[in-house]
Amino acid sequence: DIQMTQSPSSLSASVGDRVTITCRASQSISIYLNWYQQKPGKAPKFLIYAASRLQSGVPSRFSGSGSGTDFTLTISSVQPEDFATYYCQQSDSTPYTFGQGTRLQIK
Amino acid sequence: QVQLQESGPGLVKPSETLSLTCTVSGASVSIGNSYWTWIRQPPGQGLEWIGYIHYSGSTNYNPSLKSRVTISLDTSRNQFSLKLSSVTAADTAVYYCARVGYSGYYYFDYWGLGTLVTVSS
Predict the structure, then answer these.
(1) Is the pLDDT of residue A89 over 80?
(2) What pLDDT score was predicted for residue B54?
(3) Which of A7, A42, B9, B21 is the 20 to 30 Å CA partner of A65?
């Protein structure tokens, strides 16, 4: 199985801050990398696919980059509605696997 | 708009079989090249992919659960289902059904609200 490791596990930020979350795969996955946002008690929401392509309707302050084993999710200016847990997920091969999550909290 | 809704018992006894159904609206489970999947999340933990079913009926399961999992399609009701046998407390989780979207790359684009299943006697 491909292991996905996110860092940090949690971070605190203020509204307006630029935030970056890192995801590392245990082997190369090209750009088969997706990102999701999950708020407490809710289902995950699909944000980004193919490492950098925004799903329709996702605000442009979200961006993704990377290829191979190292990926990042960046929020250029954090808004109140962005405080949530973020998960990366590889779709290179089954079993599909997720990172352990990064919790973005209000400072 | 594609919508999914999980249904099934919220409490299952140890050693019994967990059975859930996902009802899909706004899309057909039997449309060409569509995949439908189950994902679970133990309380306070991360996400685990369980498996998927193709519109043709072919399946792919997580090896960690493969011996206990069955995913099936009911095209007449536009539903797909999950059965997980011989459950233990470790199977307590919120279970989500989702659509596997494809634009050259696979992703989970539409999710159900999730349903909590507790394994307890």
Answers:
(1) yes
(2) 94
(3) A42
Q: Of B65, B30, B56, which Cα lies nearest the Cα of A96?
A: B65
B116–A contact, CB cutoff 8 A: no
- Among A91, A99, A100, select the one facing B107 at the smallest CB separation: A91
A96, A97, A100: best mutation site toward chain B, by most B Cβ within 10 Å? A96
Phi and psi at A6, nearest 5°, equal -105, 150
Tell me the per-residue pLDDT of A36-58, one tens digit each, with 9 for 90 and over. Answer: 999 999 999 999 999 999 999 99
Q: How many CB atoms lie within 10 A of CB B47?
A: 24
Is-contact A20 A66, C-beta < 8 A? no
Q: What is the DSSP letter of A73?
A: E
Ranges of chain B whose pLDDT falls below 70: none
What is the Cα–Cα distance from A21 to B4, expressed in whole angstroms? Answer: 29
Cβ within 8 Å, pair A91-B105:
yes
Yes or no, beta carbons of A36 and B108 under 8 Å apart: yes
Model confidence at A98, pLDDT cuts 50, 70, 90, reads very high
Contact A96 B96 (CB under 8 A): no
* pLDDT, mean over chain B: 96
B81: nearest Cα among B18, B33, B28, B27: B18
